[in-house]
Amino acid sequence: MIEETVSHKTTTPKLVEVSLVRFAGYFLRLGTFGFGGPIALAGHMQQDLVDDRHWISKQDYVEGLALAQLAPGPLAAQLAIYLGYVRNGILGATAVAIAFVLPSFLMVLALSAAYVRYGGLSWMQAIFYGIGASVIAIIARSAYKLTKLTLGKDKLLWGIFIVLAVTTAWTSREIVWLFLVAGVVALLIKAMPTKAQVEMIRPSIGLFTLPTLSGATGLFAIFLYFAKAGLFVFGSGLAVVPFLYGGVVQEHHWLTERQFVDAVAVAMITPGPVVITVAFIGYLLAGISGATAAAAGIFFPVYLVVVLLAPSYKRWAKNPQLNAFVRGVTAAAAGAIAGAVIVLARRSIYDMATLMIAVVTFGVLIRWKVPEPMLIACAAAAGLLLHRA
């Protein structure tokens, strides 16, 4: 047990030693029952691990949250992996990553199998008729929250947001180089680096350059594509949606537009990280092996970022140039999500019934704190009642 330390009349609660099995078990439960999105999951971790159980110090939690906000990757998963690293190094990070992702992955596998088997039946089509419309409203609400949280009254960030929203809606794809430009513009205007500081920023920009799919085939091509996609999750797991849409639907033609919206819906139904939607896509491509390759790909960069950056985190976390770059990229991600709402809405909201489902869902989310899975269940029921096979 670590002794209590008292400094300037402030008591720091003693940390409680816990085995790796119990620590990973907590994240297994959180991954199984944790609904509400990344902010809610991060809040659970603070309440449970810092305030109630004292397994993690407040300082470590705050640093992990800052890392998750700065680096690419789904926030909740990245925070969980960092806390695992704090407790048990690489072994802890690995155990927590598996425990946190595994429940939602298994749920997506089950839903994917049901979708493949029954997807052609009228009742299944009716369910996703309602769910698809509600998912558009949920994404719109997430874009609104992310915009409110990250942009404030900053005119530059709003400009970046508008440019990405318009280009994504107009082209129906996420233009990767615009993310880089957004980060660089924010960096140059808000925190012009010195020549020496350029060397500190370059590694973060280098994260965006991965090998292309040329020459890659089969499961490795699936893994590589989703590993690249994982580097564009800034601010919200939904930031990956416009990137995936452009690649999965338009570039590689792996899924139809309807199947893609259904894939996002499946991610909304299950707990844990939203980016687990890639397992559904992988399953439709190559069964269980494809789902595994896709999930491993999307989370590999997240795991790698934590393991590589955690030891030196304190040296670069407060770097103004890096923070400015990330703020620009996050504003771009928020804009891309907003643009994706328009793109996906064209495919999911096409009659009065779906419009009403979307409007009611959005209104409820704005007015009350209703769990998203409950809204999706209601939308599925509405779809069964309203959809004409």
Features:
mainly alpha; single chain; two-stranded antiparallel ribbon; disordered N terminus; 389 residues
Strand order within the widest beta sheet:
1-2
* Strand residues, percent: under 5%
What integer value in Å does the Rg equal? 21 Å
Query: What order do the SSEs take from the amino end to the carboxyl end, as H and E?
Result: EEHHHHHHHHHHHHHHHH
Principal-axis shape equals globular
Assign a percent range to the helix content. Answer: over 70%
Describe the sheet with the most strands: 2 strands, antiparallel
Write structural notes for this entry.
It is a single chain. By secondary structure, the protein is an all-alpha fold. It has a domain at 122-386. It has 16 helices and two strands. Strand 1 (5-7) and strand 2 (10-12) form a beta hairpin. The chain starts with a strand and ends with a helix. Residues 1-10 and 204-210 have low confidence and may be disordered.
List the helices and strands and how they pair.
Blueprint: E1 5-7, E2 10-12, H1 20-33, H2 38-52, H3 58-70, H4 75-118, H5 122-150, H6 155-171, H7 176-190, H8 195-206, H9 218-230, H10 240-251, H11 257-269, H12 277-309, H13 313-316, H14 320-348, H15 352-367, H16 372-386
Antiparallel strand pairs: 1-2
Helix pairs in contact: 1-4, 2-4, 3-4, 4-12, 5-11, 5-14, 5-15, 5-16, 6-7, 6-14, 7-14, 9-12, 10-14, 11-12, 15-16
